[in-house]
Design goal:
Elements: H1 4-30, H2 58-74, H3 80-96, H4 100-133
Helix pairs in contact: 1-2, 1-4, 2-4
């Protein structure tokens, strides 16, 4: 039987995945001409600390967000350059006898934070595209 806390975390994760997928689908429906995003600065609102290290243009974000959405919907395809890193991590876990519950909570928290940031990026990109087209409210 699954604990109530596990069920709550699973539903929170499902909600975060749903919000992200919905935001990217909305972005994709709005952005009819992705080429208009090229050379547009990928800066968020000033209160967003991730703006300090944003690199690339909105088109780069657009392709990244769609790519991640595909992984969320279809499952991961591990790039060759990540396989060695994942293999090393697995070997470390096998040697150390880690507290799996602690690792689960760490990864779940990290995943939730990343999904939240990606959702904000997708919403920001949609707003910026509307501004480019002159459709902003």
């Amino acid at each position: 039987m699954q604990s109530a806390e596990f069920q709550r975390h699973r539903s929170c994760l499902a909600a975060a995945l749903g919000k992200y997928t919905s935001a990217v689908n909305n972005m994709e429906e709005m952005v009819m001409l992705p080429s208009l995003l090229r050379d547009e600065q990928a800066m968020d609102e000033p209160s967003d600390t991730s703006a300090q290290y944003s690199a690339g243009d909105l088109y780069d974000y657009y392709t990244m967000l769609k790519s991640i959405r595909n992984v969320v919907e279809c499952g991961p395809v591990i790039p060759e350059n990540y396989k060695a890193i994942i293999g090393a991590s697995k070997k470390t876990l096998e040697k150390e006898d880690p507290d799996l519950e602690v690792l689960f909570h760490i990864h779940l928290t990290g995943l939730s934070d990343v999904l939240s940031s990606l959702t904000k990026k997708a919403n920001m990109l949609t707003r910026r595209y509307k501004e480019i087209l002159g459709l902003a409210n």
